[in-house]
Automatic annotation (TrEMBL):
UniProt keyword annotation of Nucleotide-binding present: no
Domain C-type lectin: 1-81
Keywords: Disulfide bond
This protein's name: C-type lectin domain-containing protein
InterPro entries (alphabetical): C-type_lectin-like (IPR001304), C-type_lectin-like/link_sf (IPR016186), C-type_lectin_CS (IPR018378), CTDL_fold (IPR016187)
Organism (species): Pogonophryne albipinna
Amino acid sequence: MSDKNDLGNTLGSHATYSWIGLRRGNTHRWIWSDGRGPAHYTRWKVGEPNSGGVSEPCGEMQVGGTWNDAPCGYENYFACYETRADGTETFVFYSGGRTWLESQERCRTKHTDLAYISKQGRWVGADCNKKSAFVCQGDLKVKKTVIRMTVRSDVDLTDSTISDALMEKLKVSLAQQGITDVNLSWRRDSSGLAFQRHKVP
């Protein structure tokens, strides 16, 4: 395991096939696993992302720091980042092969999350009457779906500890299916209950 300030230095010669926190969400945008949102700055290798004829929703870093999309089940090295008490961040490299989800879990348990890459832009003065190239970013369209379910159980689902545990299981199940850019919550009635008990006839 290495602990250096720069991701490129941290990965060094291990940059080939190392997971970073990049994942394609349901909106088909590439997003960072720590919740910071879409990857506005990218370093895709020429011709990537291409899905390679199979599902490749996870991002890996290669030699030279370029990115490639790959199946999340591959076992790669991986890089985590850690936010220190003083607010600075450092990268940590693991050489043990793990899937993208296993790597993410390890990073979140031991550090902050899988590594992310950002590049700060800068403002420059420009003649407003001169024609220039520009890039637009549209608003992210959020789809809201309500799912009703019937649960047969002997436990008290009105207990917040039980309902929170059930919510976590649902999140893990969705993540294992590649669905990570979702926000789950219980819909509650006017009395604050998410579940109503019904007697089985």
